[in-house]
Design goal:
Elements lengths: L12 H5 L2 H11 L6 E5 L12 H4 L11 H13 L4 E5 L7 H10 L3 E5 L12 E6 L3 H8 L4 H9 L5 E7 L7 H10 L3 E6 L14 H16 L5 H8 L4 H14 L5 E5 L2 E5 L3
Parallel strand pairs: 1-2, 2-3, 3-4, 4-5, 5-6
Antiparallel strand pairs: 7-8
Helix pairs in contact: 4-5, 8-10, 9-11
Bound molecules: iron/sulfur cluster.
Iron/sulfur cluster (SF4) binds next to α3.
């Protein structure tokens, strides 16, 4: 194709790498290029019924569940053969099938689990665990029909090095993020952010509009800018997750909700996030 005059000048990758700041970041991520991720729904059951659940709003709920340990072992071995090195185990709710999680972990030891955190996943399953948080306990009761959910989640995963709590911004819970963050950090929990991505056909109040997305960016950007001024973000800075990186996650997910999870290095451990 003939370049047009209005086209920006072509930039070669080597030109970018010539910049020290870019090269440093490139070196940091490229050691993870061996990761090839794939996502699996472990069960079609869940112990909660959340408003706007992506699983139960769509066709997935009608899939036939296969709970056979040997079938999963075979699947994982086949996946390894085709080059998969990192699994994301989701659901409905994966904590309801701990025997399958154990098999997957035995075959493919890198990965993460997306869970509602209501039931603790055995410590022998060493994947990262992403616990979905949709607001404070009052909001969770209203939207997820679970009493004292945050209390339960914290009780299960307090100071668990596998656990990352994922606060999902909906149109309704933006103002609650500060109290939830303060509580989680005070309890020794790691926190990151996500944004609610409305399933096709869902018309309920959790859906974002332009105004709520802007408001969601408010708290999120303030995480970044207020790192030095807000006490709980000072606390977050004590964790091995730099706060701005968590915010970057939010930005990426807000642009690419429902696409492949992002993977990066948190203090030498693998972590990723997807829609929860
Ligand atoms: S916990 Fe997850 S899978 Fe279960 S109903 Fe809620 S959103 Fe759906």
């Amino acid at each position: 194709m003939v370049p047009r005059e209005t086209d920006p000048p072509a930039v070669r990758f080597s030109d970018l790498l010539a910049q020290e700041a870019v090269r440093e970041r490139w070196e940091k991520v490229r050691r993870y290029f061996f990761l090839r991720e794939s996502t699996y729904d472990m069960s079609n059951r869940c112990n909660l019924r959340c408003e706007g659940c992506y699983y139960y709003e769509g066709e997935k709920q009608f899939a036939v569940e296969n709970g056979q340990v040997e079938a999963w072992r075979g699947l994982m071995r086949g996946e390894k053969e085709r080059g998969i090195t990192y699994v994301v185990l989701a659901g409905a709710e994966p904590s309801l099938v701990p025997e399958l999680l154990a098999v997957c972990y035995g075959e493919m030891p890198l990965g993460s689990i997306a869970t509602n955190g209501f039931r603790k996943i055995p410590e022998s399953v060493g994947y990262k665990i992403h616990i979905s948080v949709w607001g404070n306990d009052e909001t969770s009761y209203r939207v997820r029909k679970a009493r004292d959910l945050l209390k339960k989640q914290v009780g299960n995963y307090r100071e668990d090095p596998r656990a990352v709590f994922v606060y999902t911004f909906t149109r309704e819970n933006i103002g609650e993020v500060y109290e939830v963050a303060e509580r989680l950090v005070g309890e020794g929990c790691q926190l990151t952010f996500n944004v609610f991505s409305s399933p096709v056909g869902y018309r309920g109040p959790l859906r974002h509009d332009e105004e709520s997305l802007l408001r969601a960016r408010g708290p999120c950007w303030s995480c970044w800018s207020a790192t030095r001024s807000r006490s709980y973000f000072q606390l977050i800075m004590r964790w091995p997750i730099p706060t701005p990186r968590a915010c970057t996650n939010f930005i990426v997910v807000s642009i690419r909700a429902r696409t492949a999870p992002r993977i990066w290095d948190w203090g030498g451990r693998f972590a990723n996030t997807g829609p929860t």
